[in-house]
Amino acid sequence: MNYKILLDERELPEAWYNIQADLPRLPKPPLHPVTGEVLRPEDLSPIFPPGLIEQELTRERWIPIPEEVREVYRLWRPSPLFRAHRLEKYLGTPAHIYYKYEGVSPAGSHKLNTAVPQAFFNSQAGIKRLATETGAGQWGSALSMACRFFGLECTVYMVKVSYDQKPYRRILMQLFGAEVLASPSPRTRSGQEVLAQDPDSPGSLGIAISEAVEDAATHADTNYALGSVLNHVLLHQTVIGLESKRQMEKAGEKPDIVIGCVGGGSNFAGLAFPWAAECLAGRDEMRFIAVEPAACPTLTKGLRTYDHGDVAGLTPLLFMHTLGRGFIPPAIHAGGLRYHGDAPLLCQLVADGLMEARAYGQRQVFEAAATFIQTEGILPAPESAHAIKAVIDEALAACEAGEKKVILFNLSGHGHFDLAAYQAFLEGRLEDYALPEEKIRESLASLPQVEKP
Ligand SMILES: *Cc1c(COP(=O)(O)O)cnc(C)c1O
Q: For the residues 268-294, what does the mean pLDDT come to?
């Protein structure tokens, strides 16, 4: 029996896959936050380096991975693909379950796949410091490490509820040499405004992004880095799916269902897009399931329209599913999934019916995580456990139907820094937040009015 399918170092992908080359319809273009005009590449240059701006907009299918980036990737890539025989047996399912394990990266999640090239292209452009936000702290740890490797300073605005709940992630970032601030912070105008209204604000990714963008825009030697949502981030993450294609080929199987959790959409897209390429070219048929928390149901309950990526309205307007930029989700433990918007490319595929979305409450998600550690031995990040819950449901559906489905999912990170959340689960202190429709409607009412294009 094959439990683990590995690739040789030499099989590390040489290029990222850009789905913009193959989409029949692209999402509407980003708009300038102030003028409302279609964003020009030069509008992004105060906060992003030329290399990344180009990747954001290009429709080239293959983007070469610089050798300096591949050298760092080799610390943990190619990442392993596992066949979950023990989980299958426990569920009594005829389904074959495979997972790509991104928790083997030094930062513990897939986020390093984009942190490394982002730091690299910024260092090439002569930038001295990167400012960013972090939710649960995974993105902050990944970027802190990448900055250290390429000689950049790093300032991290960390969502306050996570700053308090997850001190160990903060310590990890500080060990890499980053400066970490609880957001909302008094350091920026955006942070000051939120604090003036609510001194006890738990923060949100939207607020932290405002702070980091403001910091970058007001300092010439500083750029901004985003850990999800944007096209170039999804592009970098396709190393996951590209490797998984070679590994599944070695296993002699092809997935019927591809599953991933979604915060901003990057780890799911990273796994799914290279497979979706086969479907877009008419060579294959598969189901793609994006899984989000019921407490922050962007794809399942949000509107698809123009909205800012941050609370203060400093970022370009993106055409995406959104709960409204002022939406502050309940303090669930999957901090990395508490974002009001989603990647425009993923939203397009969902709107076109090529990908589906579903939402789960956090208690059932943690139960799925417990089943997973007991069968597979790996403690998943609470974010990743959302995918596991959907995998278990699909595997059980396969039992009932008596079908041998092949399921592939992304185990986006490990949960070794999330033990306080697991303790709350064990002690029965985990809450399921029923999100009142009222709250969503209120938040959506504040969407920007956009006529164009
Ligand atoms: C950040 C994070 C996510 C959510 O972000 P995406 O961009 O949707 O991938 C999921 N899992 C882990 C482990 C994360 O750190």
A: 97
In 3D, which of 294, 255, 301 has the Cα closest to residue 410? 255
Nearest CA, atom 9, ligand 1: 267
Report strand pairing: 257-261 vs 222-224. unpaired
> Given ligand 1 and candidates 228, 238, 299, which is best to mutate, with the most ligand atoms within 8 Å of its CB?
228
For ligand 1, atom 7, the nearest C-alpha belongs to 266
For 409-427, write each residue's pLDDT tens digit.
999 999 999 999 999 999 9
Domain-wise residue ranges, the chain: 66-108+232-444
Rounded distance from Cα 262 to ligand 1 centre (Å) = 7
Whole-prediction pTM: 0.96
Instruction: Give yes or no for a contact between 7 and 247, defined as CB atoms under 8 angstroms apart.
Output: yes
Q: Whose CA is nearest to atom 5 of ligand 1?
A: 263
List all residues 6 or more positions away from 71 whose beta carbon is below 8 Å from its beta carbon: none
* Predicted confidence (pLDDT) per residue in 47-92, tens digit: 999 999 999 999 999 999 999 999 999 999 999 999 999 999 999 9
Predicted pLDDT of residue 451: 61
For 131, list phi and psi in degrees, rounded to 5: -115, 140
The class of domain 66-108+232-444 in CATH terms is alpha beta
- Mutate which of 105, 258, 338, 412 to test ligand 1's pocket (most atoms within 8 Å of Cβ)? 412
- Report the C-alpha gap between 285 and 273 in whole angstroms: 13
154 token code pair: 């790093």
Using DSSP, how many helices (H) and how many strands (E) does the chain show? 17, 15
- Of all residues in the chain, the percent with pLDDT exceeding 90 is 86
For ligand 1, residues with CB inside 6 Å are 109, 111, 138-139, 228, 261-268, 336-337, 381, 383-384, 412-413
pLDDT at 236 over 70: yes
